[in-house]
Structure formats: structure tokens, C-alpha cells
Here is the input.
Amino acid sequence: DQQVKQNSPSLSVQEGRISILNCDYTNSMFDYFLWYKKYPAEGPTFLISISSIKDKNEDGRFTVFLNKSAKHLSLHIVPSQPGDSAVYFCAASVAGGGADGLTFGKGTHLIIQP
Amino acid sequence: DAMVIQNPRYQVTQFGKPVTLSCSQTLNHNVMYWYQQKSSQAPKLLFHYYDKDFNNEADTPDNFQSRRPNTSFCFLDIRSPGLGDAAMYLCATSRGTRDRVNFGAGTRLSVL
Here is the structure.
């Protein structure tokens, strides 16, 4: 049973436009959310995160929005650039002490078209 | 640069032949993780160490074992690899629960 869902396996966006990647979760215990970016033959690299006490976090061209009532988060990339073409993973972790690891979605392959 | 290093990047083994994947870190992080990622699937946590404390996920097969002899190194042992164990294996570290997880480049395992 998938607790973190990325329902779009791929997304194609024109260079310069906004890319919006979506993620839904089912576990109400998740309180910390992250986005990772992965190029082929490389490990995922951290992009941006958000705590459940916030509804928005911005870092340069990247903004993550969190809607706790809908159990939904989204990553906005504005403007989209060719180097943004990659697989984007949404991940979440559960509150509490110790190290719980991250629960990942299956990823969305973002393709930026020139 | 401080990083998470996985060796080798590609590993081929035979069905049933034990194999060990290696991971080292220069970040001095407390936590080290092993994830398995099959094609078009989400990375799946197999187990992790918080310092010397080993935490196994409930659905990780007994075929998979891990060792962490010191802070810097962590090993994934697959005792009798099956064809279904062919995957990308990602090692990762974090300082603690609330810190970002840093991944290595992964080892792609093929089972013949």
C-alpha cells in the first residue's frame, strides 16, 4: 500500500514555463516532506523540504506548497530550464524520535522541452 | 568534498552467489540507510543504522543483512541473490531524523 503517491509518471513542460509536480500522501503521521531530484546513473539529490507547520517554502526557482487537509503537496519550478529535466521524487517522514527513514513516491519524470 | 561513496557502481553476481555492496561516508553522520530501487519503483528502505543500533524494516527479506563496523562504513550483504534482487541499491546518510538524507550514486546489481 503506497503511502506516498505521485500519480504522474511523466510531465512535459516548455522551457521558461512553470512546472508543477504533485504528490499525495495517506499517512497523517507524516510531518516532514522533501523533494529529491535524480539524474540517470546518479543518486537522488536533495532539492527542497517543508515541515508540516508551514504551508509554503521557497528556494530560488523552487517552491513547495503543502495542503495538510488535502494531504497534498506540490513542487513548482519557475521558470523551467533544460537542466531541470530529471526524475523528481516526493518523500515523507513520520514524527518522533530516532531515525525512521523516508517513504518515497515512485517519481515523476520531468522533461523540459526547448 | 564530504560525500557518500558506493562501490562498486555496477556489480554482477550469479544466482545464489553471496555478494557484498559497500558504502562509506565522510559526513560523520549518525544514520546510514540502505534503499532498494527497482525500475520505475519508489526507493524502498531495507534497513538503517542509528550509530550502532540496527533497525530492520518488517518486510525486508532475511536474505538481506547489513554490517556497520564503524561510523564511516556500512555494508549490504545478500546471502543468496535471486533474480528478483536485481535492482539499484542506494546507500544514504543523515545526521538525524529531522535532517535531509544524503544519497550515494548507487550500485546497480545484476543477477545472472
Summary: The first strand of chain A starts at residue 4 and ends at 5.
